[in-house]
Amino acid sequence: MTGQHEIAVVRWPGESPSAQDGPEGLLAAYHLRTQAEKGEAVAGVEGLPDRYRAEIEAPQSVFVDDSVLLALSGDTAAGCLVVTAAVDGRSEVKRLWTDPVFRGQGVASSLVGAALAHAAECGVSTVRLSVWKWRTGAIALYERLGFTPTESWDERDQLVCMERAV
Fold first, then answer.
1. DSSP-assigned letter for residue 133
2. Which long-range contacts (CB under 8 A, 24 or more apart) does 142-147 make?
3. Residue in 93, 73, 103 with CA at minimum distance from that of residue 5
């Protein structure tokens, strides 16, 4: 694809003073798409449940103990992912999202790889995640990256829970 840029993954905030965008727009797109896929579409961020809206409006506060990773193409935020703080040797990957303009360029794989490296640096032994069962492309990606289905820790219907050793 013409115009492809190299993707750099950085921790946010702080590692890339040149990045103009934080994760807010990516988180908004993630939550709006997810609500629509669940059959609960809303017109805009203001219609999202409070906990999701808070992530968009104040990600530094909501994810204060977690690590937010941004994939950058130049100064443009191309994707994001949150790695939760370790609890009992486990972290969770959440909110993986790639801007549709950058899909097919390895952004999600780069983000997950960076999340696994970060988890290893933090002494985490297992990384887990949950994904909606209709997101078959994401499930296939996670399987390619070594995640396997596991018993659910989340009571929401239609979630596939996966994990892998670090």
1. T
2. 142/112, 145/109, 145/112, 145/113, 145/116
3. 73
| Distance (Å, whole) CA 86 – CA 124 | 6
The answer to pTM > 0.85 is yes
- Could you give the CA distance from residue 84 to residue 86 in angstroms, rounded to a whole number? 6
* pLDDT tens, residue by residue, 14-43: 755 444 568 999 999 999 999 999 999 999
Tokens linked to 84: 């939760």
Burial code of 151-166, b = ≥16 C-beta within 10 A, e = fewer? eeeeeeeeebbbbbeb
Chain CA centroid to CA 32, Å:
14
Q: Position 142: which residue type?
A: Y
Q: What's the Cα-to-Cα distance from 70 to each of 11, 13, 97, 108, 144, rounded to whole Å? A: 6, 9, 10, 10, 21
